[in-house]
Specification:
single chain, alpha/beta, Rossmann fold, seven-stranded parallel β-sheet, 38% helix, disordered C terminus
Amino acid sequence: MKFNNIGLSSQLQEGLEMMGFEKATPVQEQAIPIILEGKDLIACAQTGTGKTAAFVLPILSILSNKKQSNKVKALIIAPTRELAKQIDMQIEGFSYYTNSSSYPIYGGGTGPEFENQKQALVKGTDIIICTPGRLMAHLKFNYFDTSEIEYLILDEADRMLDMGFYDDIVSISKKIPKKRQTLLFSATMPSKIRKLAENILINPSSISLAISKPAAGIKQSAYLINDDQKIRLIRDILKKKEREKPLSHVLIFASSIKSVKEIKRTLNKSGLRSSDMHSELNQEQREDTIRDFKNKKIKILVATDILSRGIDIKGIELVMNYEVPHDAEDYVHRIGRTARADRTGEAITFINQKQVKNFMDIEKLIERSVLKNDLPENYEKGPKFEIFKKNSKKKNWKKRK
């Protein structure tokens, strides 16, 4: 469906044409009419499907037909400052053709930045994009008038709940008018998302787009390896690749900040210059790191899942998973950082014995078997790609393939 047939305001349609946007993506085609009708919505759609524009465009279209006021009209909540900034940048691009304004609010900044955020809330920027924790900090004071908020949008709701923001989101929803339109976007729909939806949405419509399979251009493989050998193998793999061809863009995911720091330290000691990205860094450090990685000043970046969604960096040649992601969908998000825009790339995952079942779930989701590489000769033998189930009646182990 083309945007000029989807019901957006004339000025926004004109702007989209000038920007070269003609055809809506599937999630936009399904979500925009529902939002324009004023219905609550639950949408299951992952990063890369055009979901941000799916809620930004109809909200901008609606606001363009309303009278200007000095109160906040729409509240968009995102899990990380990086995603909040990215949403704000998209709004800035689209809102050039409307009279709406937006402002991102997130933590990690200085005192003056907090004051600027306060002013945006007090003076009434049309759309506020925020992280839950920082918004809760502002709500502790009485200067934010939420009485005219008409739209509440939760982006990547599953990630926010994984980060422990369930209570904050419920608390925020109670502080804004009950008569509002609520939109919930999530890459996955576990039971806790359904519970949240029941608490804050009213008779919502529902759309679901099947999770995309990894791009055909990604060469996927894995190593069955014990934890105490993982960092050494990362170093050896990267050194070998560096000898064959200079590295340009490598992204390594680890689940804990401790592991991220240890990997970075080991690589730097071995002459492989790397940097790290995690929640302990302040806003300026994170922005500098992302900019340097995009500009290839940093060739190897070790990160927690903070970069698995919402960050579009072209040209990443290799993604390495220090451990198997707990959710199969997260694997797709992680390795999706490579082979973007029809390019090729490589993804390597390390599997210990406890993570075999999780990786089997991943193979089931992506509907293919991933190559299991042999460990180098000077490595201890790793675990087998088998699941062992303990038999409670007999004191032995029963193998289940």
